[in-house]
Each structure stands twice: as structure tokens, then as C-alpha cells.
Design a protein that fits this description.
Shape: elongated
Order of helices and strands: HHHHHHHHHHHHHHHHHHHHHHHHH
Radius of gyration: 50 Å
Number of helices: 25
Distance between the termini: 100 Å
Helix content: 55-70%
Structural class: mainly alpha
Length: 532
Amino acid sequence: MSVVKNAGRALMIGAILSAPAYAQVPQVPRVPMVLPEIPPMPVIPPMPVIPPMPMIPDFELPDLSELGPMLAEVESMLDRIGPIGPGPMMVGPIGPGPLGFGPVGPGPMGFGPKIAMAFDEQRSRDDEARQREDEARQRADEARQRAEEEKQREAERRQRIDESYQRGQESLERRAWERAADSFTRVIEAPNSARVDASLYWKAYALDKLNRQADALASVQDLIKRFPQSRWISDAKALELQVRQNAGQAPKPEDASNEELKLLALQALQHSDPEQAVPMLEKILQGTGSPQLKSRALFVLSQSNSPRARQVLTAVAKGGSNPDVQLRAIRYLGTNGTAENRAILAEIYASSSDVDIKRAILRSFMVAGDKTRMLNLATTEKNPELRMEAVRQLGPMGAREELWQMYQKESSPDLKRQILGALFVSGDSAHLIDVANSEQNVELRRRAIQHLGTMGRTSTGDALVGIYAKEKDTDVKRTVINSLFTQNNAESLVAIARKETDPALKREMVSKLSLMTRSKVAMDYLMEILNK
């Protein structure tokens, strides 16, 4: 062990002896540090003495009483903003550059965030007010639409009743008694029907022809009991007597042939000597004959120029028979629209309170071409339904300027809508274009545009494109699109589609064009879209 230690010591000594000898490192001379000479501080001249501020002369404060409302508004705004004091200021730095209000005074202020909060609250209140206004407007529109729909349903209901009644009349003329009785039963059972008494009469008449006298008597007695003041009472009593006479008897074929013979005889008298037939015609009108027989008798009377025939026809038109016969007499007076007949119609109109009778007279004025009386009733009639009827009849009479003057003076949207329909019937596209461009009521603008769409592309296509170009309301724009589509006006649809930036409206136009497969313009535009 000691040998190993000695050997290791020898190796260490050899290594030290074999290492290179280090020369002594020369010492680097030190460079003395020389500091630059500091120039002496310049002498600061004394500050100039600031002269004292001149005294501000006394002046009288202006009267601020007129600013009371404004100051109250400012005070209200400051109350909403809150107190000004320490807090972060949020309006920006003061100094060169962008205008701002940096930290002012000894510390930050809390003015900015509260102003922003006040403005946000005011904006929120304004938005809520606008929303409430929009909702109120929408509710009003919905209520108006529901009322319009209710009117439409009521009109459709009356029309169905009138159609059932008319089918019953036609069945009587064809001697389809069972079908006639069914039609009049539907009129009787319809709610709020205005022709129940007439239908009870004609149902009893048809049942009598079917040899069902018991049912016929029940129907005519129901009429007499329920409608004691009806103008059908005299006819009903005459029919009741006839039914009782026929009770227990088989139907007589000669009855039908007898009526046919009477019709043939009346037709012959019509061409030969109408004056001779007047007493017999008057008797037929007062009897229980069929509607066809009474209608023929009235027609023969209307063709006669004799004073007696005109007197009978006038008496019937004034209500000397049942309402069905009266309406036919009024129509015949309108067809033969002499000045005398028109004067008789005006007299009946003024004395009657029956809306159906007055409506028939208005239509007779239209057939007779009596524009003066029609225009007078269109402006003075108190009943809205009759006034609208008069307005409608002015359309086929070509009263364009008269209708336009009425439109400009009228305030009722419902009546304005009827005037637009009459202008459409008269072919007055110029005034419809005026309404579409200048009317403040959106629904009336849309109605005018709808009418323009059915008046032909040649006269209204360019006008519809012009209306679309300056229109802001989306619903009105859609109405223009539908009107151009109704006209099959692909050229105009493509023209406005190229300029439209609203994706929904453009998609609607492309949808319409995709249905116009026979139009080359439409197909070319669709291919252009596909190739993009």
C-alpha cells in the first residue's frame, strides 16, 4: 500500500516538473483619468415683475328669467349624470393634437362614463318608444285587415245566399221542382239571410208542384206567421188558397201545358198588339204564376209605349208587387232608359229604404247611362254600401275625371279603394300611376300597383319600373315584382334584378323569372347567373 502511495506521489512530481514554465507577465501601465472641464453655470436674469391685473368694472347681470326652461333641462340632465368629482376621466388628453379633455385639476374626474350612460339610457328609451309605435302600427294594421276580412266574409256570405236563391229561380223556370225546393231551403237556413220570406214563398210554390200540399201549406203559413209585414203576404195568401184547392188532387199535366200556352200567347202579343194584352198582363203579375211567366209579362209591358202599360210597369217598379217582380221592373226601366224612365227611377230611389232596391236602381242608372245622377249619389249618399256601389258603377261609365276628383277629396281609405277599382275598370292607367307614385297610404299604393299589373305591359310596364326604382317600402316593391310577373314582363324584371342589392328581393325576382320558361330574356338571365 505504501508502494502505491509513493508511486502516485512520484507521478505528481513528474507532472509538475514537466509543465511549461510561465514567464512573468509584464505589468500594463496605468492611464491616468482626465475629467473634462465643466463650464460655469450661466447667470439667470431676474424674472420680470408682472403688473397687477386691471380692475374689471362693475356691470349689470342680464335677465336670465327667459332661460328658465333651458336651465331646468340642464339641471335635469345633470341629475341623470350624477355628481362631478374624483374618478376616471374618459374623454381624452388636452394639448396639441386631437381635441380632448384630459385629466384636469388635482385628480381624475368621473364625468365621461356617466354622460355615456345617460346617452345610452336615452337611446334605449327612444328605441323602446319607436318599438312601441311600430307595434301599435302593426296592431292597427292587423285590426284593419281583420275588419276587411270580416267585410269580405260577409260579402261572400251574402253572395252565396244570392246564388242559392238565383239557382232556385232557375230551377223553377226549368220546372226542376225538387232542386228548387232544396235551393230555397238553403237560403232559409242560412244565418242572417235577408231572403227568408221570399224563399218560403217559392219553396211552397215548388212543393205544391210536387203534389206535397201539406209541406207547401206549412211553408206558406210559416211565412205568414214570421213575416206579417212582408211584401210577400198578399202573394202568400193567394198561394195558400191555391194549395188548399189542390190538396188531395193529383197533379194536372194540363197545368204545365196551360202555362206554356200562356207564354206563347204573350210572345205573340209582344210582336202584334201589346196594348191589348195589358189587362191580362196585370192579372198575371198579381197572380201566383211562375217567375218565368211573370218575367215575360213584365217584358211585354216594357215594350209597350201605351200610357196604361207604362203606368202598370211604374206601379210594379214602385212596389206594387213582390220584391222579385219589382226588381225586374226596375231593370226593364233601366234598359229602356228614356228620360221619363230615369226620372221614375230617381223618384223610387228617393222614396225607398230598401238597400236591394236602391242597388238595383243604381245599376239601372248605369245601363241607362245616367252619369249625372250616378255621380250625385256617389258624392251625397249617406249609406256607405250604396255609395261604394255608385262609385263602382261610375267605372264602366267611363267617368275618369269625375272619379279622380272624388279621390283627391275623399278621406276614407275604403272608399278610395273602391275609386281605384273604378279607375281600373275605366282603363285610367294615368291616374293609377299618380296614386302609385304619390299616395301616402301604403296599402292604397299597393292596390294601385296591383291594378296596373293587370292593365298590360305596354301601357304600364315602364311606369312600374320607375315606381320600383324610387320606392323604399319593401312590401310595395314586392307588389311591383308581382305585378310585373302578372304582365309576363320578363324584360322589366331582369332590368330591376340587375340593379337590386337586397338579396331577398333579388331572390324573389329570380324565383319569378324561373317560372317564365317561354321567355328568352328570362332564360338568358338565369344562364348568366349560373355562369358566374
